[in-house]
Write a structure and sequence with these properties.
With 766 residues, the chain is an alpha+beta fold. The protein has 19 helices and 22 strands. The protein has 5 domains: 110 residues, no CATH class; 130 residues, PAS domain (Beta-Lactamase, 2-Layer Sandwich); 109 residues, Beta-Lactamase (2-Layer Sandwich), CATH 3.30.450; 211 residues, Acetylcholine Binding Protein, Chain: A; 129 residues. The strands form 4 sheets. Strands 1, 2, 3, 4, 5, 6 and 7 form a 7-stranded antiparallel beta sheet that branches. Helix 2 runs antiparallel to helix 12, helix 13 packs parallel to helix 19 and helix 17 packs antiparallel against helix 19. About 4% of the residues have low confidence.
Length: 766
């Protein structure tokens, strides 16, 4: 390095040595910054992902511990009742009363059953002509406890899967499993035709003396069960976003993920998806991810204990296309597994994404600095002379344009930042989790699934957009039983809902009902077509590299009641935003724009009025449903119509600057008189200002937009060239105009123009 420096600076004048050393130091600093920014970016991404995976595992472990505690309490109930029956402390006479007391003292339990083997049925019961006996205590919908004699409904001693008297399939493994195992057994979930509910529970045998020798023999089973809605409510109560917000991130992420339970055989027991879909269809781990099974989970858990590294699975949802992390923790007492699903994008905040983008910009600027100062050394521009100075000018200008192009590329390819108030509703299970959370906060809410199909979008002005399409609503047959599966309190007598919707931002709207159909499950679906003009405030600050979201906000027609619209995601084959659900993708035409995505979201808006209606529900925090259409401006059209004229003007100004040379004998300029330069500059100014006024008129933008900075720069360039011509003609510029006959002005013209454009772009896109 020292020999190379000696070769370059040997025999140079002092200022040239200084130029070489300055360029070398700046090149080394730039190279160091490149390395620092690259390492920072890579380590930061790895750190964020590592923390995310660690949090995912910790959430799964914590939730599994909470569920283990609940299951332990249930298992204790079964063991205590079995112990008292075996010891004789609990007699058949007090059995039913004891079962009722157990439910009163244990709110987590939903039902307790004692089922006798036929040969051990108490004499007091056998004398009534009963050959089997199974008292069953259960909490009803109102929370009251009632006693049912199961053997009045079906023969629980029959093999599992046998048909009952009314032809329904009977589930009796809860009885046979503990008898055969002679130990505590957690059963698989099942649907009970008698109660019309889904159950899962624990069974343990109890013992009574048999024969003359008094030897204890298995006499029956004590079963304590949980209705699976209890588990669903438990999972909904543990709000994942609050736990995440208490960690490294400051803001809540209600759509960050959800939990689900898996049984010993890999059947999904509980998830935010309604029971009818996951249990009736026997959804398993393999339906969720083909590479998953109980054996895989056990192997992952074992490796995690050995290596102390988070066992997390990368997963892409088949319907929504969202990248997710899966973490599992064993629920040991039952042999079940708790799964945690985290949406990778939702888990990372916008602050993290912005930090990564700025790190990339830092790398680009550092590379630009290294290449410029390196070229000064390699091409020996530090020696001075016209050739060296022009080389430095051209290199700096080209690198600046390259950096600007890179910033444009980042802006074009990166997704627009979602509104901070948006709760994205993309993945169905996460959406159901979000809905359940709102239902827990306000149990009076009635949900109405709503879908939309947009046929066309047209910008009629800078702030008005015309939208046409179809919208439908699904009204469940058991209204007001809601879509999330949590029954609200009974509405006031006479409460009824008027089918329909409201677009609050609509300047005008035309709606007509086009169909009404009753589904096989009794739900009624009503559809309308609509044409509306929506007035919205768009952000054109980054024009022509801006992205916009056209959003359609929807209220129920009875917006004064506790009605929450929910997205009917089941009506779309794909909910991946990039597949543009709800858009007519084949014939959708939008001038000067490309559609990038579409998705539903919730926003919680507050109003400082009751709309003149007493006790209006809208003043309460009811989330409002939005359908969002992401748009990206076609850069080429704006480039041709706006940027090319500016580029042409800048080259014309440079051509004028090249002709500005002094003639000391007559005081005129070569090729141009001073008045000619001023006239030409005035003509260019007129062209630029007309284009500038047309731009602001067409956009009706508030504040200064990015492209306007180009016009302001041209105003400055036109004024500077005019002043330079006057200075050269009057010979008042001193050494600045004398050196090389106005060479400095020509050398710095493009570096100043491109450098300022780079600075403006950094400010706009940082």
């Amino acid at each position: 390095m020292t020999q190379l420096a000696q070769q370059h600076i040997g025999g140079l004048s002092t200022w040239r040595k200084f130029a070489f050393l300055f360029s070398a130091i700046c090149a080394l600093i730039s190279l160091a910054l490149v390395i620092v920014f690259v390492i920072w970016h890579l380590t930061d991404k790895a750190s964020v992902e590592k923390q995310a995976l660690k949090d995912a595992v910790q959430i799964a472990v914590n939730d599994a511990a909470a569920i283990n505690e609940a299951l332990h309490n249930i298992q204790v109930i079964a063991k205590e009742v079995a112990k008292d029956l075996s010891s004789g402390e609990l007699t058949p006479a007090g059995l039913e009363e004891r079962l009722v007391d157990e439910l009163r003292r244990n709110p987590n339990a939903s039902a307790v059953t004692v089922a006798y083997r036929p040969e051990f049925v108490p004499e007091s019961v056998r004398s009534l002509g009963r050959h089997i006996y199974a008292p069953f205590s259960m909490k009803n919908e109102q929370g009251d406890i009632e006693i049912v004699i199961l053997d009045d409904q079906f023969d629980y001693t029959a093999p599992d899967g046998s048909l009952s008297r009314d032809g329904q399939e009977m589930k009796t493994n809860w009885y046979h499993g503990p008898l055969e195992a002679k130990e505590v057994v957690w059963g698989e979930p099942y649907f009970s035709p008698g109660t019309q509910k889904y159950w899962a529970g624990v069974g343990t045998p109890f013992y009574l003396p048999a024969g003359g020798n008094g030897e204890l023999t298995v006499a029956g089973v004590v079963d304590v069960s949980l209705e699976l809605r209890q588990f669903q409510k438990l999972l909904a109560t543990v709000t994942m976003e609050e736990r995440l917000a208490s960690g490294n991130e400051e803001e809540d992420r209600p759509a960050a993920g959800y939990q689900f339970l898996v049984s010993q055989s890999g059947v999904v027991i509980v998830s935010p998806i309604p029971f009818e879909e996951i249990l009736t269809q026997q959804k398993t781990l393999k339906d969720f991810d083909a590479d998953l099974s109980i054996a895989v989970l056990e192997r992952m858990h074992e490796e995690e204990r050995k290596t102390d590294k988070p066992a997390v699975v990368e997963h892409t949802d088949a319907v929504s296309g969202q990248d997710q992390w899966l973490s599992f923790a064993p629920v040991g007492r039952a042999g079940w597994w708790l799964g945690i699903v985290l949406d990778q994008k939702q888990f990372r905040s916008d602050k993290v994404e912005d930090r990564w983008r700025r790190q990339q910009i830092g790398v680009a600027l550092a590379v630009m600095g290294f290449m410029f100062f390196g070229s000064v050394i390699v091409l020996r521009a530090y020696r001075g002379g016209n050739r060296g100075l022009w080389t430095a000018s051209v290199v700096f200008s080209v690198l600046s344009i390259s950096a600007i192009s890179y910033l444009w590329f980042i802006s074009i390819t990166n997704e627009s930042r979602d509104d901070d108030r948006n709760i994205l509703l993309v993945e169905r299970a996460t959406t159901e989790k979000v809905i359940s959370n709102f239902m827990l906060k306000n149990s009076d809410l009635i949900t109405v699934p709503t879908g939309i199909y947009v046929q066309s979008v047209e910008f009629t002005s800078a702030n008005n957009v015309t939208v046409t399409g179809y919208i439908w609503q699904r009204y469940p047959a058991d209204l007001p039983e809601n879509f999330a599966g949590i029954k609200p309190s009974e509405p006031a007598p006479g409460l009824s809902l008027t089918p329909g919707f409201i677009f609050p931002e609509a300047d005008s709207i035309t709606v007509s009902e086009v169909y009404r159909q009753v589904q096989d499950n009794g739900d009624e679906v009503i559809g309308w077509d609509f044409r509306t003009v929506l007035r919205q405030q768009f952000d054109y600050a980054k024009y022509p590299f801006d992205r916009e979201d056209v959003w359609i906000r929807m209220w129920h027609k009875d917006f004064d009641k506790s009605v929450m619209l929910t997205p009917d995601l089941a009506s779309y084959p794909s909910t991946d935003p990039e597949s543009k659900p709800g858009l007519d993708i084949h014939d959708f035409v939008l001038e000067d724009w490309d559609t990038t995505r579409s998705f539903f979201s919730y926003r919680q808006n507050r109003y400082n009025t009751d709309f003149g209606i007493e006790n209006v529900a809208r003043t309460v925090e009811i989330p409002e449903l939005y359908f969002n259409i992401g748009l990206k401006r076609r850069f080429i059209n704006a480039f041709v119509s706006n940027l090319i004229p500016i580029i042409v003007v800048s080259f014309l100004l440079f051509a004028v600057l090249l002709t500005v040379k002094s003639r000391r004998d007559d005081g005129n300029l070569l090729g141009f008189s001073t008045s000619g330069v001023l006239s030409f500059s005035a003509a260019l100014f007129f062209v630029v200002i007309v284009a500038h006024v047309n731009l602001r008129t067409s956009l009706a933008a508030q504040g200064i937009i990015y492209l306007e900075l180009f016009y302001f720069l041209m105003y400055g360039a036109i004024l500077s060239v005019a002043i330079n011509s006057l200075t050269v003609a009057s010979s008042a510029g001193g050494w600045f105009v004398r050196y090389g006959d106005n060479l400095i002005a020509r050398l710095i013209y493009w570096p100043v123009i491109t450098g300022l454009l780079l600075a403006f772009t950094l400010v706009a896109f940082w």
